[in-house]
Specification:
The protein is mainly β and about 110 residues long. It has no helices and six strands. A hairpin with a 2-residue loop joins strand 4 and strand 5.
Length: about 110
């Protein structure tokens, strides 16, 4: 696998002005249960985030541990609730350590 070349990066917030009515920066401790091999969406965790509503978008997620073949996605599943769905694509059960999860949630204009 080749490393990326000719990477251009720009850091500012001008690109996003006027796109969101509201944003949330969330940090929470997450200690997911063990996820069975090949489980798809079988493991979910919820995080209470006051003010979020259906239709809001989770635009970024980061965790503080190596995910070991786990694929996660986060979405607003109900008023005040974000669900983190965990899929295990490995050939064995995976039990991740407790970690800090960080989310950025936005309400589009």
């Amino acid at each position: 696998m080749a490393a990326a070349t000719a990477v251009t990066s720009k850091r500012d917030n001008a690109s996003f002005r006027g796109l969101f009515n509201d944003t949330w920066s969330v940090s929470a401790t997450l200690d997911s249960a063990s996820v069975a091999s090949g489980a798809s969406g079988a493991a979910t965790d919820t995080i209470t985030v006051p003010g979020v509503a259906l239709g809001d978008a989770v635009i970024a997620m980061s965790v503080g541990v190596t995910e070991a073949g786990i694929v996660r996605r986060a979405y607003v599943s109900a008023a005040n609730t974000v669900t983190v769905a965990t899929n295990n694509l490995t050939g064995s059960s995976v039990d991740l350590a407790s970690t800090t999860i960080k989310l950025i949630i936005a309400r589009l204009v």
